[in-house]
Design goal:
By secondary structure, this protein is mainly α. Helices cover 84% and strands 0% of the residues.
Length: 104
């Protein structure tokens, strides 16, 4: 595991932006797949077919909910990383100013 230094916030911001973009693209793909899998042909008249379709729809809903929760968590972590990068840059600038004042 590499240790990120404060000077590496640009890389952290880039990773955060990439995670956000990937999260958005994954959500779009998920929504398309969810629409397709939800549009299952109606069951035939036998009870086994109806039960299978109902179970598939339940499985689709559960997967959809879990994926959306994961995507939401990814977005929150990406936002938190961005906020912390801004704070780290401010701390770094304050530290540099203090060192500059002491060195004079």
């Amino acid at each position: 595991m590499n240790t990120m230094k404060i000077a590496d916030t640009g890389a952290q911001d880039a990773v955060s932006a990439a995670v956000g973009a990937l999260s958005g693209q994954t959500a779009l793909a998920h929504n398309a797949v969810h629409a397709i899998t939800s549009a299952i042909f109606p069951p035939t008249n036998d009870s086994a077919s109806a039960q299978a379709v109902a179970q598939q729809q339940v499985n689709t809903q559960e997967f959809s909910a879990a994926l959306n929760l994961g995507l939401d968590q990814m977005a929150k972590v990406a936002a938190l990383v961005s906020v912390n990068n801004v704070k780290n840059l401010a701390i770094d600038a304050a530290g540099a100013a203090t060192i500059g004042a002491v060195a004079v």
